[in-house]
């Protein structure tokens, strides 16, 4: 957690491995299996070109070596929340990626923090010898660099290898030996007598397994980036405060192995015991891994700094992802939410003016907002500037998201406060909260009498262009910000959050003003309903007729803040809730907002549907709007699982799909929003 | 120098860029050229897929941008010792890679050392506008990471960009502006209004050039690896002692630009003014760049540590390369030779026993020797162990090179002492020198009466296998160590070097013993001459009949030590010298040791010829054996140049060629041995 590192594998016949700060799986070879008495290696299909169906073949080693290899054909896989168990033939590879609440570093003990930040995961490689001869179990990694053996460096305490003092593996299993060679096949069949041939890019472990017996290699995989990790504002990985080196982290991980496995088991049971379908359990487990691989827990010299990188794009703390990952982070460690919110206030807030599209040169009062992100690939952007946003684009990808990021700060802060009661936090930022209300209203319309509750004016940062929403790669139905009912919904929810916080701050007049703005937004959106269409068109202008599911998205915020009356048919916004119910009923049909496979299509006019947002809207539909989809739900879930497993086979958890094929947002953290499913039914409203 | 970094480009139509610690050219895009008034970019062909012949085409930008591009078709290139000048159309790119004597860091001033270690090179990009409209000159680099702009960070003092605080470029040319975008074509045609679009992997400079005028961008390219650079024994780059950051190094480089350009000009003139042919001047210039890109000047906390990495293989201080690069290093900075020799003594020497191939289990006294290398890819090997050598191989690639590395230490030490008169050095290592004599003789034969002067016994490190020579990828003619006349020649030369050093140390008895051993070696090799063949077969056993050019190689050592009588027909080894003359006369013919193109084929029985060793043997043949090849010399040189320019187009300076095609040792430092050519004729014997 927080090491921005991963051990990715599992797609049959392709590469994988240990990676740090990467935009996708490490493209190495993973060699796991047993070598039988005839020197045939029976391997799991975790390396390139290993999806052949021949029972056995001769494989040429990279430097003249070679040997006979058989790829295990019958693979079973159990993909639990923290344990990935891959079994083929005599070999079972279990990967433990435990996660748990990271304690607030400002108050936790050093021992707790060391345990939480240790940059290691755990493997268990089980070799089950049902033959009558001794066999050898092997685990090896081929990388694009070279290795040093740990045995000599640790006086035999650790068996394993490290590369560049940055990645490595270690075991203390009796009988395990380290090997280094060009490739695992050459190592198995080595004609020379030097098990540790330092010239090769492959290192691994081997262990003899007597006839009829089982041996288990208990391995820690460690990651360690020492020194400066981020640029422009220099920070280090937080784990460097607790561990002096990769070797020490590996020692610690093995010493505390049981405690990590206990955490993994607890999470595994928690998900397994939930009433969710297997498809949903898979999606949650998949999303959670992809989230943690993108997390970066840094130390700036005075305090912890929490960053979630944007999957393959590696933008830092993209705010429109933060708001979706909020539910998971609030569940696990709310301090990370607070941490990111304060980073936005301190470094990535700004003041702008706004203009109407019909009169771009007429600047009117805007207000505070926040950037799209904080930088990219460990390069912090200059203060008040994102890596993503550029000026001069009219509602196109890479334009500014000023209004939406403003709602994101308000919504995250509202949820954080509602769930933690951290009154000190909102008191500290009272002026910001006041500014947010004013800024939101100015983005509706700087003239109070002309307001309708949803966004009507664009930021001067666009330099005469037009703002977009997080749905940057979709058409205007979701991509255009102004007069968009998706963003309008988020403005409504933001006003509710502001009302709640302002009331708690003892600012009843402003709270009332917020409530009035929320009503206005709900009215405007509801009034947009077109009975000829049966739904509210996405953009309330220009005769737009797109149908969008995310019209309902923002209902999640009052719900998780405990503002149940706001989302009840019987409550003050009942008309709005009921209209959204009708809206969703109308559009969830094939050809409109359903794909032929039953998967959800966020917009009727764009073939680009996002796994994270689907999960969020599924939650809203079932738990807030009280839809009962019956069999259609499991059909949709099966489709969404197929998109990940068959579509995005090589990219771990992916967000953007075109008709089930991944087209962007690969290796992505955002889908963890689906942890909301765990709060369905029984736990409704008690997140 | 010593930054293990390079800016590689020039092969038309392919990638290049700034790289650190790489095994080949950086695979990025280099965009240099002018954008005319019609927005057409006229670019040098220094990026992928840029070898098209269409006059102009539309190029799709990577993120939706795009624009019209014309590739300059008529490129001229001047490739001087330190300046690479590439001209096409209105654009001239000049790359200055100055080199000069690196002062001994133990005695030089901080100012001298800062100047020598500054990890920057210089560019001059000249844009000549002969049109009647304003055009824009551009220089851009596309990498696999992201950039930060230098302007804001330096208060406008530097214009440019850096990535990961590790590579970057800067200028102070008035009017230059920085741009950052997805790719240069998109940057030129940007539809947005943000010149520095931080999300993109391309950064560059642009400058307006008024009609009829010329503008010159003066750019520094800088490299900076902070913190620990090597593993197992942690060291840093030496330049981190003098520079605190990449930005500071760039500032320094620009401030001292004129002094660097003066050095470059001096080297350029030196080579240009030499009497060498253009082909030889090219080969020297090419080899020198490839050498410096492999050099690593480190700091271990107490002293400088000099490492030359082995080209694409990145082994550290491979000793059989050190001995070939010796001539260049002695010429430039002898302290680096001493430094490497002492590293071998302290960390990579060992004692072994030896055995005869007929009785591998019978261990006999061996003695001191040295490992093949010191590690690989910044990983220091354990003490007394190389990355390369493994046990149990019988005269195959990756076996031990124990005898040859012993000769290499003796020969390097002998040449170092002869040329520097550093008596303190050999006094300090008197015991080692004594040990070398005994060890050499034991590798001939542990029984003195049975000795013949050349290697007969293999090291116990081979565990019953057989040693090889540096020619590891050739057949036994050059690959087998024992009874090999190539290695026999190096033993002869080693005995001469030992004689010289022992006499200087006041050990006349041992000096005499060395001289006797040299005579024995010369006799044995001469006696190997077969009049039926007309040459000495490569291996003096098993009726071997291979013809090898490197039989003459070792004559270079007494020559550069000033031991002219040793290589004279009239001297004590005149019979040996004359036999080698006859040998070379016989074998230098097509089908034996000449390729059809006139290039030299080191062994008649192996199609794998090495540019470094060819240069060395050419020097020996002309300057010591006094061959006059007439026109054949320029034909051979033209062939060798074609191997590099047409064969190894994409791999910079390459060593191993199969019939003119590169097959290994790419991006290699060793060819710098060809600096010997500069010491031909006029300077004979005065190296």
Give a nutshell description of this structure.
2 copies of one chain form a homodimer. By secondary structure, chain A is an alpha+beta fold.
List the helices and strands and how they pair.
The structure is a homodimer of 687-residue chains.
Chain A lengths: L4 E4 L8 E4 L8 E7 L5 E3 L13 E4 L5 E6 L3 E5 L3 E6 L2 E6 L13 H8 L2 E9 L6 E8 L5 E2 H4 L5 E5 L3 E5 L5 E5 L2 H5 L13 E8 L4 E10 L12 E2 L8 H10 L1 H16 L5 H15 L2 E5 L4 E5 L10 H14 L1 H14 L1 E8 L2 E12 L4 E2 L2 E2 L21 H19 L2 H6 L1 H15 L13 E2 L16 H4 L5 H20 L3 H20 L28 H5 L13 H14 L21 E2 H14 L6 H17 L8 E3 L2 E4 L23
Parallel strand pairs in A: 4-6
Antiparallel strand pairs in A: 1-2, 3-4, 3-11, 5-6, 7-8, 8-9, 9-10, 10-17, 11-16, 12-13, 13-14, 14-17, 15-16, 18-19, 19-20, 21-22, 21-25, 23-24, 26-27, 27-28
Helix pairs in contact in A: 6-18, 7-8, 7-9, 8-9, 9-11, 9-13, 11-13, 13-14, 14-16
Enzyme class (chains A, B): hydrolase
Protein name (chains A, B): Glycoside hydrolase family 52 domain protein
GO molecular function (chains A, B): xylan 1,4-beta-xylosidase activity
């Amino acid at each position: 957690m927080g090491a921005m590192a991963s051990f990715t594998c599992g797609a049959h016949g392709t590469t994988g491995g240990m990676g740090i700060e990467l935009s996708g799986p490490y493209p190495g070879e993973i060699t796991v299996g047993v070598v039988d008495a005839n020197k045939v290696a029976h391997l799991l299909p975790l390396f390139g070109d290993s999806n052949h169906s021949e029972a056995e073949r001769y494989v040429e080693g990279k430097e003249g070596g070679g040997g006979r290899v058989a790829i295990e054909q019958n693979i079973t896989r159990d993909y639990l929340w923290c344990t990935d168990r891959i079994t083929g033939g005599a070999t079972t590879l279990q990967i433990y990626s435990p996660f748990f609440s990271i304690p607030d570093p400002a108050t936790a003990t050093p021992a707790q923090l060391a345990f939480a930040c240790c940059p290691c995961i755990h493997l268990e490689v089980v070799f089950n010898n049902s033959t009558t001869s001794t066999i050898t179990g092997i685990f090896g990694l081929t990388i694009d660099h070279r290795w040093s053996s740990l045995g000599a460096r640790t006086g035999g305490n650790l068996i394993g290898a490290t590369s560049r003092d940055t990645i490595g593996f270690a075991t203390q299993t009796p009988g395990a030996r380290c090997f280094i060679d060009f490739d695992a096949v050459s190592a198995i069949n080595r004609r020379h007598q030097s098990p540790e041939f330092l010239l090769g890019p492959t290192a691994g472990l081997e262990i003899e397994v007597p006839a009829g017996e089982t041996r288990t290699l208990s391995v820690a995989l460690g990651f360690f980036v020492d020194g400066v990790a981020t640029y422009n504002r220099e920070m280090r990985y937080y784990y460097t405060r607790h561990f002096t080196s990769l070797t020490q982290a590996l020692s610690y991980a093995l010493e505390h192995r049981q405690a990590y496995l206990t955490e993994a088991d607890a999470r595994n049971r928690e998900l397994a015991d939930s009433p969710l379908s297997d498809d949903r359990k898979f999606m949650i487990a998949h999303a959670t891994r992809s989230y943690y691989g993108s997390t970066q827990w840094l130390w700036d010299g005075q305090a912890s700094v929490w960053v979630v990188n944007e999957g393959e794009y590696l933008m830092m703390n993209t705010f429109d992802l933060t708001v979706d990952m909020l539910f998971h982070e609030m569940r696990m460690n709310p301090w990370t939410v607070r941490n990111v919110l304060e980073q936005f206030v301190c470094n990535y807030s700004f003041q702008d003016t706004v203009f109407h599209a019909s009169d771009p040169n007429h600047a009117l009062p805007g207000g505070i907002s926040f950037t799209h992100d904080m930088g990219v690939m460990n390069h912090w952007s200059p203060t008040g500037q994102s890596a993503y946003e550029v000026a001069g684009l009219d509602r196109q990808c890479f334009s500014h998201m000023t209004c939406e990021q403003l709602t994101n700060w308000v919504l995250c802060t509202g949820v954080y406060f509602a769930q933690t009661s951290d009154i000190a936090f909102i008191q500290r930022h009272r002026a910001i909260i006041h500014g947010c209300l004013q800024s939101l209203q100015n983005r509706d319309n700087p003239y109070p009498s002309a307001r309708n509750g949803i966004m009507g004016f664009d930021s001067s940062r666009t330099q005469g262009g037009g703002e977009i929403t997080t749905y940057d790669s979709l058409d205007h139905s979701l991509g255009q910000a102004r007069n968009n009912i998706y963003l309008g919904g988020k403005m409504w929810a933001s006003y509710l959050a502001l009302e709640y916080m302002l009331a708690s701050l003892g600012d009843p007049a402003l709270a009332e003003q917020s409530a009035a703005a929320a009503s206005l937004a709900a009215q405007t959106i509801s009034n947009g309903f077109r009975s000829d269409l049966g739904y509210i068109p996405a953009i309330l202008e220009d005769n737009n007729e797109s149908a969008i599911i995310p019209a309902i998205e923002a209902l999640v915020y009052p719900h998780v803040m405990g503002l149940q009356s706001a989302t009840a048919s019987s409550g003050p916004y009942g008309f709005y809730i009921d209209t959204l119910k009708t809206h969703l009923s109308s559009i969830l049909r094939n050809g409109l907002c359903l794909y032929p496979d039953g998967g959800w299509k966020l917009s009727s006019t764009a073939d680009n549907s996002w796994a994270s947002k689907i999960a969020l809207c599924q939650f809203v539909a079932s738990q807030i709007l009280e839809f009962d989809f019956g069999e259609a739900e499991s059909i949709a879930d099966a489709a969404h699982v197929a998109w990940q497993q068959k579509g995005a086979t090589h990219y771990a958890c992916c967000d953007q799909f075109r008709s089930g094929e991944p087209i962007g947002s690969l290796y992505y953290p955002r889908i963890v929003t689906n942890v909301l499913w765990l709060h369905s039914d029984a736990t409704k409203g008690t997140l």
